[in-house]
Model the fold of this input.
Amino acid sequence: MEPDGDILRVEDLRTYFFTEAGVVRAVDGVSFAVKKGETMGLVGETGSGKTVASYSVMRVVPKPGKIVGGRVYYDGEEILSKSEEDVRKLRGEQIAMIFQDPNSSLNPVFSIQEQLTDIILSHNGGMKKEEALETTIRLLDKVGMPEPETRVRWYPHQFSGGMRQRIAIARALLLRPKLLFADEPTTNLDVTIQAQVLELLKSIKNETGTSMVLITHDMGIVADMTSRVTVLYAGRVAEISDTNTTYRKSLHPYTRALLRSVPRVDEKVDLESIPGNVPNLITPPSGCRFHPRCKYATEVCSEKVPPLEEAEEGHFTACHHWREL
Amino acid sequence: MSLAKYVARRVVYMVPMAIGISIISFLVMYAAGDPITLATAGHPNITEGQREALRRYYGLDQPIPIQYLNWLSHLLVGDFGRSLYGGRPVNQLIGSWFWETVKLNLIALVLALIIAIPVGVNSALKQYSVGDAFVTSVSIFGVSMPVFWIGIVLILIFSFWLGWLPSAGAYGFPELWPLFGISDPTVDAIAHLILPVTVLTYVQLALYVRLTRAQMLEVMRQDYILAARASGIPSNKVVYKYALKNAITPVLTYAGLSIGAIVAGAPMTETTFNWPGLGRRFVQAASILDFPVVMGITMIITVMILIANLVVDVSYAFVDPRITVE
Amino acid sequence: MASPSTVVDEEIKAATEEEAAPKKVRGAGQWSVAWRRFKRNKAALLGLAMIGSVLIVAIFNNAIAPYPGRPSPDAFKPLYEGEAGQPPSLKHPFGTSRYGTDIFSEVVHGTVYTLYVSLFVTAIVIALALAVGVTAGYLAGRVDDVLMRIAEVFLVIPVLPLILVFARIFQIVFSQTSFTLPVLGISVPIGLTIVVVIISVFGWAGDARAFRGEVLRIKEMEYIQAAKSIGASSRRIMLYHIIPNILSTVIVVATLTMATAILTEAGVSFLGFGDPNTVTWGYLLNENLNELSVSWWAEIFPGLAVFWSVLGFNLLGDGLADALNPRLRE
Done:
């Protein structure tokens, strides 16, 4: 238990999916760290492994997936080797997750009250039902639900999409976790609601000082919400640095390409899309996985896997040619 | 809309259905010409004059709509008319046989559900295990075997070769009990129940296991289950409280509808085991085209099915809140 | 109960998709992927083999069966040879019935009727179900309401009793006419055909509902895809996508209907309501029921044949459903 330092440290995490079509190496050697109190952006396209990586940390990877290697340290303790029951206690209480689609992450046949109080009661055996209900109502109020005392008995389908996501946020905060994973919390929402939800997350951050991992592919949100960024590509880490550096002095071709595909208000720049497609993770490209789509690629890129090197303090990149960028 | 309004709406919808089906059932009688002609087709010695007399006796000389209304009005007070063969009141013929059928099917249904749901859930959880493979094969066998054939096989094994259980009827003859070491009528009744119930249970079991398993597999893949697990809810609860409630709806639907079909009896099984049930009575009546009996049983079955449908719809409202609270 | 894939599914899917190819090749790809999956499913292959064996026996029934089928008098040769009611032996692999027929031959000949019933019933049922289901699903509105009410009537009606009654009525009415009708050189049994029609008329409603559900589901998906695609997507393209998508469901449903058809006919004939002039397996089961205590083989083997065929179709149907399902499995 370190007062400062990393709340989460992931080392060489590997999670594979054993499917009929072959072994999908969704997370293939990912390492990153999250400092206490910071918001880390976990960025990448669909299929980059960002969601699977966070599921791996919480050990809820669904079948046919399996964590096959690596270490995960939560607040100094290695958790991949813990028993299932020990990890269960961590879930919700220490580490919580806000899921991507609020329309499917809430159980449709149970009331909000039932689902949420159950979570509280599953952790604090001594707490009474009334107390759990009070806590639930308090949090629903905090995320902006009108009349939470009555509406707590409603069912998910009776709420709008934006409100459902707020409920999902409330659910994650019930037990005051120290680490929060927010998986694309605004992707499935209307644009107008997106801003509200992001504001909500920010205010929660400020109030409680919770560490957060924000999973997204939207570079705009990253700029707004995060202090550090980890960029994933095809199951591997491409670059890790603080947010400013990411936008101004990125040392990885993929990150740069990502940034160039986002429209800017301040400059008039041509949008560029990244040529090619996200690689097949059953038979990924050799060496650097990005090399087929990279305009700086040379022969060594297809032969050797680029190691994650510290280019400057706190700035890591996995590219053979980062010095020339 | 409120529950009461919902139920009322469904009931109102049921009535025209019931009437429509009663008309269809009634018209079946005339499907291929005059019923008396058909019913007496196997008796060439009956003269046309005698046929006319029969028609008058049964009121079949009236215009068809009048006949229908007559029949319907009697039906509503519980009088099912008289059999075309010998004129016995249909009520008598159906009476006690009704309960024998219900007894048989109800026990089978309950047993099937009690066994199938846990088995199905477990099978889904341990997909691809040996246990799951076994369960899957047994259930696919169950839905592929003709019902009567299973009965026949069981009769061969347990009645003829092993001599353990009786093969026919619902009750044996008290005089013969000492031969089997029985002195209690209940034991006798149970002994007669075992084989037919086993057959019916097995067939339904297969179906419910397949259904439950498929539903559970589908539900377990959902985000909300993953979310529940990620919130620290213990595995048991995730499965048996959260997943199960989502998965169970189609199973309940089918079970509810089966309750309606309970009265339809199981003509195959009842024929195999010579069981004094509605199914067998129907087969007998249909064979000799004894229309009043046929129509009477059809109406009973129809009403039961409609009521079962209603019950299922209402229970949906309890299980799936998305329906009433619109 | 179908709902969108989970997030992980989508990630896996994205990670395993082949490079995007022009639309036409992708269509073909769907079937070859399904075929590959099917080949890996042992149970499905078993089902295919079982049905294949039934087909072969049916085609070569006259060559395989040692004795001819009824109404040829030679069908009763064992009786004249004093071999009636014999248990299975080398000469009579399934034994002989008390009436003097060779069970093995009768089962072999009956295969033809089984396939006839199964294919014909399925053809009619699928035709009706598609017509009603697709129209209802595609046109929606009043048309949908009306058609679905009609289907509901057929689902609520106790089907078996009505099948029995109609079958019996037609049995009596047609008992005076000839047994078969020459159609395209083959003598088609009238009675059995009537049974087929009756079964079909009462059995299409469930499939119709399934097809309608599929059309509704596809409609939703295709709208989304159409909206996503760049600009023009003509009606024709939508049709090109709806039909192949429904096709896989139709195939699965048809296969399972074939299984049900066999079971239903066997049941109807078993109860004595089938065609008295056609020796189907169900007919054999009815005929020999009372002789169970003395010649159990006469009852068991025809039943086994029914079981074999139905199981074959069910395994095949399950295998097809699995192979054509776009979801990934372990």
In short: The two ends of chain B are 7 Å apart (CA to CA).
